[in-house]
Amino acid sequence: MHAIATHLHRYRLWPTLPMLLCVVLYLTACARHAKPPSVAPRPPAPIQPLPPVAQPALPAIQFTVQVGAFSTSARAAAYADHLQAAGVDAYYFIDVDQLYKVRLERFDNREAALALGLELQTRALIDAFFIVHPQPEQALPDPPLALGESIVRTAHRFIGTAYRWGGTSAEKGFDCSGLTMTVYRLNGLELPRTALQQYRAGTPVAKEARRPGDLVFFATESARRISHVGIYSGQGQFIHAPSRGNAIRSASLDNSYFASRYKGARRYF
What we know:
Elements: H1 2-10, H2 17-32, E1 63-70, H3 73-85, E2 90-94, E3 100-107, H4 110-122, E4 129-132, H5 143-156, H6 176-186, H7 195-201, E5 203-205, E6 215-218, E7 228-234, E8 237-240, E9 249-252, H8 256-261, E10 262-267
Antiparallel strand pairs: 1-3, 1-4, 2-3, 5-10, 6-7, 6-10, 7-8, 8-9
């Protein structure tokens, strides 16, 4: 401002009061619109990774009682039915020696299993019995993969068998969730009883991430209700107990019937 006044005085151009006010307003406007000093933008906050989804842990079966060795599934089923009628949780299966056997209850320790076996002998419900510790058939470096492969091998033994879970009448045919539960029990895992309960108990698995031993679910009775389950065996195949009058078999997930009713896969280990 002083420099402007000196310039005007040198050329004897003394400003009038209105002119001086205009100069002041001009300088004030320039100062107001001057660019602020540049400030470096803040770096974006690092993205926090989502916590991993916890795998549900099924209860492990430590010990169980095993009885019988039958040449046919019908005889094993009748024996399981007899024990069920006496209030014992019994189910039958086909063993690696191709004989049908029956297992009873689940226990946390060997003593409790032994006590049940002796009690049932006293009641003349069973003869000889064994205390067994269910576990995968083969140990591999990766325990989850080993367990999945063992589950598939166990399920393969049932193919062609007129399977029905202990306590289900022959007239009602096969029980898909009874098959999956029995196969998991034979590998030391306590799976819930019904297909819907099994569906809710597992971790969802995308189609491209399915592994042998996962369970696959379908809505065969209505558009939404989970009503059928099978054991994924790899390469788009699964093992299941299809319906009454049909033996346990392997099927393709690409089959139009199953593809249109597919509701997802679940993992438990």
